[in-house]
Amino acid sequence: MRRRAVVVLWLLGPWALGCAVLPGARGGAAADRRALDAALRGAEESPEIGRGRLVAFLRSHPGSPLFDDAALALARLERSDENPAAAERPLRDALVRQPRGDRVDAVRLELAELARERGDEKTAWREAQRVRLGLLRDDERPRAARLIADLARSLGDPVIEVEALGRLRDDTPAGQTAEIDARLARALDELSTETLLQIVERLGQRDSAALLWIAIGERALQEHDSGLARRALARAERAPLVAEDAARRERLSAALGGRAAPESRVAVPPMLGELDGQFALPDPHQLSGAIGVALPLSGPFAAVAEETLTGILLAAGLFGPPDGSSGSAPPGSPAAGSRSAPAPAPGGGLRVLVRDTGGTPDGAAAAVRALAAQPEVRAVIGPLLSEEVHAAAEAAVETGVPLLALTRHEAVARSGPEVFRLALTRDAEAEVLADHVVRDLGLQRIAILYPKDDYGREFEALLWQAIEARGARVVGVAGYVPGSRDLSGPIRQLVGWTLLDAEQRARLQQRDAGLIEAANDPAPDRSAAAGEPAPGRAAIPLSGRGFAWSDPEPDALPPIVDFDALFVPDAPDTIGLLLPQLVREGVERVVLFGPSAWSHAELLRQGGTRMEGFFFTSSFDPSHPAPLVQDFARRYRSGFGREGSVFAAQGFDAVNLVAWQLSRGATERSALRDALRTTTRYPGVSGPTSFANDGNAAKRPFLVGIRSGQMVSIE
Questions:
Q1: Whole-number Å distance between alpha carbons of 472 and 438
Q2: pLDDT confidence of residue 237
Q3: How far apart are alpha carbons 251 and 368 in whole angstroms?
Q4: Percent of the chain residues past pLDDT 90, beyond the cut
Q5: Contacts of 578 (CB under 8 A, 6+ apart)
C-alpha cells in the first residue's frame, strides 16, 4: 500500500508536495482550497481514501475554479490503477464545466494520452492539437511534445513532427537528446528547404531553432548555396549550444571559411583482435601512489559495486602480478568477504583507497572530496549510478582530481577537463550492429520492434540512422508497451495486417475459411495432402499453421515478411516471449539481433534452439579468443573462484588506463589528466577504447553470436 501511495503522489504532481499552499492567483474560495487540500492529503494515506475525497469534491464543488485541478488529480489516480475509462470521465466533465480553465491544456493532454493508449489516434490527434504547450507545467511540456511528435509521425505529418521534436528537445536535459536528434535528422530529410525555413521561423529564438539553422546550412552547403548557408550560420551563432552541437556549428563555419573543421569525437576503435599484443599491462607493483574508488557499496546496487571492485583490485595487483602467477585470495579481499582493500605488497606498489557513496549524489560528492584530499591519490574511479555521477564530477572539477566515471551518460564528461566517461554508449552499439548486419551478412531489409520507453526509442532511432547510413533500408517499425506479454499486435503491424483495405479483408476471410474447410476435409485432394498449392496459387509456409494461400498478385495477403533481419532492443525474457509469437504470425527464416541487454545467460534459457544464428553486442565477451581477455578470465577465476563479469572488466580496464599513464611518467594529477586524453586504441578487456577531446570514451562493443546453443565470439 505504501508503494502505491508513492506512485499516486508522483502522478498527482506538484499538488502532492505537501498540499499546504494552493496558488493564490487561482481565485477560488478559501473553503474550496481547504477541501481540495484534504482530498489530496487523503491520497497520501491511500489511493482509496484520495479517490473518495476527490469524487466528493467534484460533486460538491461543480462551479469551483479548482474543479479542473481535482479532475486532473482523480484522472491520474485512476490511470495509476490502470482504469482508463474511469480516468476519462472527470476530464470530460472538466472540459464541459471549465472550457477556459487554467488547467484545460493539461486536461486535454491527459485525454489525448488516454485515447492513444486505447488505439484511437484520431481522437488523440484532435485533443493534442488543441494543447497549448506554453501553458503546461515544466513536467508536462515534454510529455505533450513527444505525444504530438509521435502522432504526427504515425499520421504522416512531418512538419508538425519536426516542430514538436524541436520543442521536446528544448525541454530535454543536455546529454539525453540522442534519440530526439536521430528522429529530427530523419524527419528533416523528408522536408524541403523551403518548408524547413517556415518551421524554423516559428520556433523563434529557441535552442532547437539553432539546430535547424545548422541543418539548413549543411544542406545549403551541399547544394552549393553559400548565401543561404551563411545566413543559416549567422542565425545559429546567436544561440548558446552544448559541445556536440557547437562542434557541428564550427564545422559548418570552417567549411564556409575554407578551414579544416576540428573533430570533437573519435571513431569507434577497431576490433580487439586487431589491437591485442600492441599493449603490455603495466606492473602495478612497480608504481607508487594510490587510486581512489567511489562506488555504491551499500544499498540496492552493492552487488554490482562489489563486482566492479573485484576487477579494480585484480588490476591493482592485489592478487599477484599481471602474469597471474599468484592465485590466492589474500585475507581482507572481497573474495574473503571484506569491502576494504588489502595492504599493498611489501616495498610499495599501487594502492587502492575505497569509499562508499551509498548510491546518493551527496555520498558520491563526499567520497570524491575525501579521496581528493589525500595527496597520494592520483585519480578516482567511479561512481556507477546516473544519480551519482554529476555530483561526483562537480567534486572532481572542484578538487582537480581526474575522475573516470563508469557510466554511459556522455554529458557528465562536459563537467570539466578532469572528468572522463568510460562505459559503452548506445550509439557505438548501433554502429557495430549495423555494420555486421549490412556489411558482413549482406542483409538489406531490416525491421525494428521496440519497447516504447526511453531505452527502446533511443535504440530504434540510432539503429535506423545507422542502417540507412550504410545504404540498407528499414522497411518496418513497430512499438509495444514495455512489459507486454502479448506482442501479436505489433508483429502484425510489421507483416502487413494493419494496411489491409476492405477488399483485402474480405479476401483474407475467404482464405481463412478455405483453410478451416481444408483442415476439416476428411479426404483432401492429393495436391493439398502433399502440401502443394492448387494451380494458380502461391504457398507461404507457416510453422504450425499448415499453408496460407494467397493470390500471386503484387498485393499479396499477410503475413508479408519483407525483411531479412529484425532488431529487438529488449531484455531476454521478452525475447523468450517473442519467439513463439513470431512463428505463430508467420515470421520465419529471419535473423534476430539485439543490443547488450541480450548479453545474459538467461537469453539461452528463454530462447533455446530457436536462437541459432542470432547475434548481439556485449560490453564483455569471455569467449573472445584474444589472449588479453583469456588471461583476465583465468586470473579472475584464480583470484575469486568464479567467472568475471562486465562490471569487473570495466573496473579492471579503468585501473590499467591510469596505471599505463603512471608508468610513462604522468604521476601528477594534471599530467595524468592530459595524458589520459591522448589515449587511443587501448585494447581493454571491456572493449577497445579511445578518448575524444571532450573526455568521452569511444568504445567498441564485442559481437557475440549463438552457435549450437552456445554464446560465442563472432569477431
A1: 7
A2: 80
A3: 36
A4: 37
A5: 449, 487, 568, 570
Q: Quote the DSSP letter at residue 696.
A: B
Q: Could you tell me how many residues make up the chain?
A: 715
Pseudo-torsion of CA 122, 126, 127, 132, nearest 10°?
Answer: 140
Quote the crossing angle between the two packed helices 243-257 and 207-222, to the nearest 10°: 30
What's the pTM?
0.58
pLDDT in tens, 570-585: 999 999 999 999 998 8
Across 29-33, 216-220, 392-396, the highest mean pLDDT is recorded for 392-396
Instruction: Give me the residue spans of the domains in the chain.
Output: 192-264, 274-423+625-699, 425-499+558-618, 501-521+531-556
In 418-488, the DSSP E strands lie at: 419-421, 445-451, 473-480
Helix (H, G, I), strand (E, B) or coil at 295: strand
Q: Are 274-423+625-699 and 425-499+558-618 in the same CATH fold?
A: yes
CATH no., domain 425-499+558-618 = 3.40.50.2300
Can you list the positions of beta strands (E) in 209-255?
none
Please state the separation of Cα 544 from the chain's center in Å.
Answer: 36
pLDDT exceeds cutoff 70 at 709: yes
Structure-block grid coordinates of residue 647: 562490471
Angle between helices 30-45 and 2-12 (to 10 degrees): 140
| Per-residue pLDDT, 272 | 85
Alpha carbons within 13 A on the beta-carbon side of 223:
13
Mean pLDDT value across the chain: 80
E-assigned strands of 422-541?
445-451, 473-480, 538-541
Dist. CA 71–CA 57, nearest whole Å? 9
The DSSP code sequence of 301-346 is THHHHHHHHHHHHHHTTBTB-TT----PPPTTSGGGT-SSPPPPPT
d(C-alpha 299, C-alpha 297), whole Å? 7
Reading across the β-sheet that carries 565-567, which strands appear in turn? 473-480, 445-451, 565-567, 591-594, 615-618, 702-707, 710-713
What's the average model confidence in pLDDT over 271-300? 87
The stretch 328-353 carries a mean pLDDT of 49
440 to 109, 445, 614, 715: CA distances (angstroms): 46, 14, 14, 10
Confidence label for 693 from pLDDT (cuts 50, 70 and 90): confident
Rounded to an integer, the average pLDDT of 364-392 is 95
Instruction: Name the CATH topology of 274-423+625-699.
Output: Rossmann fold (3.40.50)
